[in-house]
Automatic annotation (TrEMBL), chains A, B:
The keyword Hydrolase applies. GO terms for cellular component: extracellular region. Residues 106-416 form the Glycosyl hydrolase family 67 catalytic domain. This is Alpha-glucuronidase.
């Protein structure tokens, strides 16, 4: 075995072994279902099958419904993809799939686009390595400067993604270096090979491209989006892609951001830029994903008027309505950058005339880098269900007409994700993209049951470790939403002042009296004013800002009393001591898993938990010491702070 | 021209052109003198020469004396090296060399060993690059994983070094990686080529070696210094080196330090380790330089009892008297690591039975990395003249029986040193190694006159920029000797808390009340007790500790009044505002040099001064803001702090 099977071990189809199946219809994806059935040791049948799968176009794309009648479970699917997803529902349901309590409702994805972005480089980047923000070894796509000759692991990955409903994958880093840029042209035949691995699983391949490609690859003197030759170059390049890959998904662009080229160089705006590519893609049904992650990363820390949190909104809202139909503006869930706690990005509620995608991060850049067990289903669920305009308004999920996109966390590590328990995040992202209303705790249990089989004690252990692990991580890192107290560059481990005097726009302004960023309209940067009511008013006032975000919106004295009844500084002390104790319990609890999971998995998780405990202790001591030294206020409970 | 000529431009020998010279005797170095004379367009003569050079062994090695009689300048030299150094004295003296006021005293180096260490890697290191702590481009020795085919620049370098009296060079980094380790064995023929470049200039080549070489290169199971096979391996390896390079200088070792292997792995001590190599070298007259830079770099910041400043003394003083005669223990000038201001290392006064070398750093790792103009002659002079046992005791220079060693600052940059004005540091190191009593300001003027020729206004400008540039740099960086407020790893630019929670043992302990490290015996780490009297008592008490070191030895409240009459915090504010103003004056002053120096040199210095001003401003603002936020004490003069 060259890799772990994640949530599709052989045992996951035990309930189907020896049963009979009839699949009506022809097609690539139906063939995939037949191969999956054979793999599960089901027997083909023409009549009297235990399970039947057939198509009914009236259900609509990607949709299926399970019907149990006369001892037969019938999967009725709107199209081939629906059949494939229905098949995996049978796997997920276990024995229930063949029982009379099969859930019978129509099962339709909430989002048509459910996408994973890979920040994989072909050449190893001197600083960022093979996979930018990758914590799971090398790339499954690339090695030693080339696309891998053996892409079979990509096929295994595609199967896993399809089983949780992912239908699009961007296969290279949004920071497009010279080597990766060539995927669009000279190395297109290599992308063809990658697409062949994804195609049987209903997954379309996307490419990240450089906005400067007409110069870099085409030898043109400009990349000006309003230049006719530039437009023609893109049209020709895209046409060649579709000739080679008819089901190609589209292009992903990070422009005018953190050093990447973009339309600003030509005095154009992001609508000009995005529409340039959109028009090249439109004849072929392709999509351009255009990232809204645009901000000034050479900010002066002395200038308190500039606020990075404002940037995406300020850049993009004036462009609302100007983007072509096949442009999706991809918006990070928070206004900063995947911090453990951020408010929902107000941009998501501010572009009614634009298709927006919600961008999440499965890779744990700021949440422990797959050294720490941090299950992200809960924060994602909170974001998806958040209603920026209050209880009567739409949820973020509903606002994200362009679907969901997330940065993947897999690599060529045996367990795919470095930390075996981080597989749960990949699983949860797929499932929540399909149905954002799923309870994250239930999704976690699905993953546990598939991965670890029927062992209630083990399930309790793993659930106990992961279910509130996000809150645990939050409790020992940056407090109350203030974010960015990490080591610069690598983003692992504490450095309270690490970004305090940096050009990246990431500050907490702690002094001897207080800490936090005043983002109110009245006295601060005005960021709170980017929200519609009721949140605009709620965030404006510390009294109505939720505790967990209060330092994101306000600079408060250490003695300020939170809704919890604690002062700010006592909250910092308490949560940090508590966080380490929670990790100690995780470590102790994992001992229950010994002998119940494969030894290699047990050891890997044990090692990482030991590192998590070491790291959490370091976080606790540095953060508490920092605030004790600054505030001079002792811990009410007299615990040891250095 | 592939490189700048530093302090030996053609014009430096104008006063000798057309004059006649007679050199008596034969030998490689005398041939060098003859070639230099021809290069200066002197004419050979047998009688009636303007200048004569001859040997008189009674003067002793490396020594010379100028005698002016009957219109002839006679260089009487104790040996060939003395003749070469005498020649360069003629160059340095300018017209005075041929006048009746030739200085007539015997000119003998204060130190027999005057050495430069190169931290050059052969392979480019992923983090440290080609030259570790190199700020002047690539290595002049190595390129693309090999010793350069064309080593002519090494020959030019050797000439420059000989002109200031350097007589030994270690040609590879003390952090010996796998590739560099092979210089000792497989690649010895390449070292032969390097030695050929140095030999005509009286310079002996040394190699840095890995203590694990018997394992790495010899395939032995151990590097235990008491193992007979290990000793034999070293003896054989060294014998092969001397067969190839009869004037080989010896070996340089960084052992049990920052991850390098050493005798501790075998339960042996540093005397065992050093003597192992010493015995291999002794039959050939070779020297082992053994670095005393040994400390715990995985320290816990929570543990205030461990003090990195104590480490070298604690490790080495128990070994005094146990080192073989041909071991030189190489001691950094301060107890930490080349900070801009440190007290003199007490180890220098604590090993009367051991040959010690004083280690300095010409490369500006912690002093602006050759982006900032920082002339180091003055601090070196202070160290060399410091008397650890008080006014009646010996100077550091006198205690350094093993001579001086310093990390070089050159690379393949056109100007050799990145910042053209940093050439002055290489010059000053050589001159002060020869004669530590030279006034640093006079050495600076020598360098200016040689480099820039006879232009009094330009000389004033350059002198004005460099003479107190060290104090300027100190004034805008870490205050009052506390050190280490730099960005971790790269060590450029401010990061006040950058090392505050690190394992490297580099802390300032700033809190809302005060800052500094208590190293007293009474209440601190006891480091002050490592000094003999009177310094032990002086450093013990803030009242008798010099201001510039007071935070190195004491943790003091911000309101503590210094000898200067200022409070600690007001000193911080004042010195940082003042430092930037001084840099502004440097920038303005350099404008005087326009048109008086070559354009490329003018531009290079201008660029660097602009960067120095930017960086100094950043230092000022970050340090001042940090201490204002922490102390809450406003600037008495109401200047802007952020």
């Amino acid at each position: 075995m060259t890799h772990h099977e994640m949530w599709l071990p052989e045992s996951s189809t035990d309930h189907l072994r020896g049963r009979t199946l009839r699949v009506d219809g022809e097609g690539v994806l139906l063939d995939t279902v037949r191969r999956e059935a054979a793999r599960a040791a089901m027997l083909p049948a023409t009549t009297d099958a235990d399970v039947t799968i057939d198509l009914d176009e009236s259900l609509g794309p990607e949709t299926f419904r399970l019907v149990r009648r006369d001892g037969v479970t019938n999967v009725v699917a709107g199209d081939e993809r629906g059949a494939l997803y229905g098949w995996f529902e049978l796997v997920r349901l276990g024995a229930r799939a063949l029982g009379d309590d099969v859930p019978g409702q129509v099962n339709r994805p909430a989002h048509a686009m459910r996408m994973l972005d890979h920040w994989d480089n072909i050449d190893v980047h001197p600083v960022m390595g093979q996979v930018e923000r990758g914590y799971s070894g090398g790339s499954i796509f690339y090695d030693a400067g080339e696309v891998r000759a053996d892409l079979s692991r990509v096929g295994a990955y595609a199967r896993l993604l399809a089983s949780v409903g992912i239908n699009r994958v961007a296969v290279n880093n949004v920071n497009v270096h010279a080597r990766e840029a060539r995927l669009l042209t000279d190395d297109l035949h290599e992308v063809v090979r990658i697409a062949e691995q994804f195609r049987p699983w209903g997954i379309r391949v996307h490419l990240s491209v450089s906005f400067a490609a007409p110069i870099l690859l085409g030898g043109l003197p400009t990349s000006d989006p309003l230049d006719a030759e530039v437009a023609q170059w893109w049209a020709d390049a895209v046409a060649r892609v579709y000739e080679a890959i008819p089901d190609f998904g589209g292009l992903l662009v990070k422009a005018d951001s953190e050093g990447q080229p973009g339309p600003f160089s030509y005095g154009r705006d992001h609508a000009d830029g995005a529409n340039l590519l959109a028009r090249a893609l439109a004849p072929h049904g392709g999509i351009v994903h255009w990232r809204a992650f645009v901000y000034n990363h050479t900010q002066d820390w002395r200038d308190r008027s500039t606020d990075r949190a404002r940037a995406a909104f300020d850049h993009f809202t004036p462009l609302d309505g100007r983007f072509d139909e096949n442009v999706v503006v991809q918006v990070k869930h928070g206004p900063m950058d995947f911090q453990v706690r951020e408010p929902v990005s107000p941009l998501l509620a501010a572009m009614p005339g634009t298709r927006l995608a919600l961008e999440l991060q499965v890779t744990q850049e700021y949440s422990g880098q797959q050294q720490h067990a941090v299950h992200l289903g809960r924060p994602w669920s909170e974001v998806l269900g958040f209603r920026p305009s209050g209880d009567d308004g739409p949820t973020v999920s509903e606002l994200a007409g362009g679907g969901l996109a997330a940065v993947s966390n897999v690599g060529d590590d045996f367990f795919w994700t470095g930390h075996p328990l981080a597989q749960s995040n990949l699983y949860a992202f797929g499932r929540l993209s399909w149905d954002p209303q799923l309870a994250p705790s239930a999704v976690l249990d699905e993953w546990i049951a598939l991965t670890f089989g029927d062992d209630p004690e083990l399930a309790r252990t793993v659930h106990g470790i992961l279910d509130d692990s996000w809150e645990t991580y939050e409790s020992y890192t940056a407090p109350l939403g203030v974010g960015f107290m990490v080591n610069p560059g690598q983003h692992y481990g504490p450095s309270v002042d690490g970004y305090e005097y940096s050009p990246w726009g990431t500050y907490h302004f702690a002094d001897r009296d207080g800490v936090g960023v005043d983002r109110s309209v009245a006295t601060g940067t005005g960021f709170a004013g980017q929200y519609p009511e009721p949140w605009r008013s709620r965030y404006e006032d510390p009294a109505t800002t939720p505790d967990e975000l209060v330092l994101f919106f306000h600079h408060l004295p250490y003695g300020h009393r939170l809704h919890s009844g604690k002062t700010v500084v006592q909250h910092i002390y308490d949560s940090h001591f508590d966080g380490v104790e929670r990790v100690e319990r995780m470590v102790a609890s994992w001992e229950q898993a010994r002998g119940r999971v494969p030894d290699d998995l047990f050891e890997r998780v044990s090692e990482r938990l030991a590192e998590q405990l070491r790291s959490a202790t370091e976080w606790r001591d540095q953060v508490n010491t920092y605030f004790l030294r600054k505030s001079g206020i002792p811990d009410e409970r007299g615990r040891r702070i250095f």
